[in-house]
Task: inverse folding
């Protein structure tokens, strides 16, 4: 599904193999992924209140923004160059927050899983708890 400038996708559920592409000026609110599914947040787009369960991938690309993202039972978030992620939670079952060159991740909460901060990337305010 493609979402373009000025449009909002809300209460969207993605299952195996489904792809949600957000383009400049588009927003996604309360998106859920189950057993796979991919969200591509492209330049100028915003995704908020996303829940990933049992796998899936979020790619946050240059000049894109995500916030209040939760990973349950696995999943991967790639925060790429020029992208920003605020308030990301790995609740259970593992998961990966991958902050690539030039990406920024703020307020990360990890019960299980991994936060990987690559060269020239930034992670601020990371909390580990059990």
Result:
């Amino acid at each position: 599904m493609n979402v373009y400038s000025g449009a909002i996708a809300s209460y969207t559920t993605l299952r195996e193999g489904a792809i949600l592409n957000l383009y400049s000026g588009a927003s996604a609110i309360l998106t859920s992924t189950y057993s796979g599914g991919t969200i591509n947040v492209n330049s100028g787009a915003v995704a908020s209140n996303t829940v990933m369960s049992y796998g899936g991938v979020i790619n946050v690309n240059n000049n894109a923004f995500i916030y209040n993202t939760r990973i349950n039972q696995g999943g991967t978030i790639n925060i790429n160059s020029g992208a920003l992620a605020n308030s990301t939670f790995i609740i259970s079952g593992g998961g990966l927050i991958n902050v690539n060159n030039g990406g920024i991740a703020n307020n990360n909460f990890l019960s299980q899983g991994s936060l990987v901060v690559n060269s020239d990337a930034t992670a601020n305010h990371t909390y580990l708890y059990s």
Notes: The mean pLDDT is 95.
